[in-house]
């Protein structure tokens, strides 16, 4: 379509046969080529775009599988369209099997990046689908299962990603543990420790291992949460890890800014992912999940994919230490 348009203009110009006319019209042609013509999409109402509560009560053992959720989450499998924004980049995404990590993995691959994903061995079924989707996008896909609560594994994960991708320039620390507890008295030391290890220690270990490989222009992205600013009563441990995540994003952006490495965060509101159906929410909250937001529904991972792309895009070169939110109308980043 683009070629056809350009060609017909060229034909018109050559018909004029004047070099002056070519010089005058050439910038117009360039501008046209840059704004690649795409078919108009109909406007979509965000309140009716995706399922609304009430949802079916459902519980899976942690860490849960997207493939077993009802309704199935949308990670952009059928909808995300790339335009070469991350061509040649090499990305590592933790929790890349499902939820926001999967949406980011699909989008990154369709934008031209090679992608390594980490996940727990129990999530192999979800991970296989993501690996297939990355390959379908024509990109290199690397699967590195393993438990992020282990420092030695976090180091191996980065080394393996660098080796298999042939370098690294985007690191997305997205994996997290969320297990709700009504009372602090029900929260064991093991629980507390597992949440801290997954949500705080793992990004610390991964960033330390990745840093020697990251060149100026690289990007680190963390998934934080609306919980960082507005913690729920039953997420005592999880919410404080998200406050810490937003905080490390800002601190590290200051530290790494002079080295040309950008550090930013994504802050989701309630999003329809396995984390919520495998102990992250009570069944009572799950049934009405997202219903209290101005958009009247939870978000879908696909609705955050473009934010992960934007923060990694070299065009966003002045954005560092920022947290971009997607909360359906409630909350603060
Ligand atoms: P998800 O369950 O799809 O993703 C979380 C992932 O974390 C899992 O897929 C799993 O692979 C990984 N993980 C957990 N423990 C691990 C461990 N020990 N080792 C390796 N991997 C481990 O759910 P999600 O909602 O997409 O979560 C992604 C991020 O979004 C998390 O940081 C979460 O805190 C954040 N978030 C989610 C919501 C929401 O409502 N779903 C809201 C705000 C923030
Ligand atoms: Mg998962």
TrEMBL record:
PROSITE patterns: ADH_SHORT, TAT. Transmembrane segments: none annotated. Belongs to the short-chain dehydrogenases/reductases (SDR) family. The keyword Oxidoreductase applies. It comes from the Bacteria. Residues 34-83 are annotated as: Disordered. Keywords: Oxidoreductase, Signal. Coiled coil: none annotated. It comes from Hymenobacter guriensis. SUPFAM superfamilies: NAD(P)-binding Rossmann-fold domains. This is SDR family oxidoreductase. Residues 1-33 form the signal peptide. Residues 71-80 have a biased composition (Basic and acidic residues).
């Amino acid at each position: 379509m683009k070629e056809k348009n350009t060609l017909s203009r060229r034909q018109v110009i050559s018909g004029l046969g004047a070099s002056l006319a070519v010089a005058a019209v050439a910038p117009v042609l360039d501008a046209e080529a840059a704004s690649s013509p795409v078919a108009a999409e109909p406007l979509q109402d965000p309140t009716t775009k995706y399922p609304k509560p009430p949802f079916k009560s459902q519980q899976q053992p942690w860490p849960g599988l997207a493939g077993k959720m009802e309704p199935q989450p949308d990670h952009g499998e059928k909808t995300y369209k790339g335009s070469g924004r991350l061509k040649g980049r090499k990305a590592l995404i933790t929790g890349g099997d499902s939820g926001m990590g999967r949406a980011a993995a699909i989008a990154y691959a369709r934008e031209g990046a090679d992608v390594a994903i980490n996940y727990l061995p129990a999530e192999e079924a979800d991970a296989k689908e993501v690996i297939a989707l990355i390959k379908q996008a024509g990109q290199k896909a690397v699967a590195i299962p393993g438990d992020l609560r282990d420092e030695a594994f976090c180091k191996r994960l980065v080394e393996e990603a660098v080796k298999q991708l042939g370098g690294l320039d985007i690191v997305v620390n997205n994996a997290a543990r969320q297990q709700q507890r009504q009372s602090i008295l029900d929260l064991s030391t093991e629980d507390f420790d597992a949440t801290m290890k997954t949500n705080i220690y793992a990004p610390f270990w991964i960033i330390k291992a990745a840093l020697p490989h990251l060149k100026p222009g690289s990007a680190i992205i963390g998934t934080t949460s609306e919980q960082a600013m507005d913690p729920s009563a039953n997420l005592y441990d999880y919410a404080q890890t998200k406050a810490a995540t937003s905080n490390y994003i800002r601190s590290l952006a200051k530290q790494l800014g002079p080295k040309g490495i950008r550090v930013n965060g994504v802050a989701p509101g309630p999003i329809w992912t396995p984390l919520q159906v495998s102990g992250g929410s009570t069944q009572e909250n799950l049934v009405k999940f997202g219903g209290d937001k101005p958009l009247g529904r939870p978000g879908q991972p696909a609705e955050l994919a473009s934010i992960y792309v934007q923060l990694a895009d070299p065009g966003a070169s002045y954005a560092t230490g920022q947290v971009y939110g997607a909360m359906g109308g409630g909350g603060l980043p």
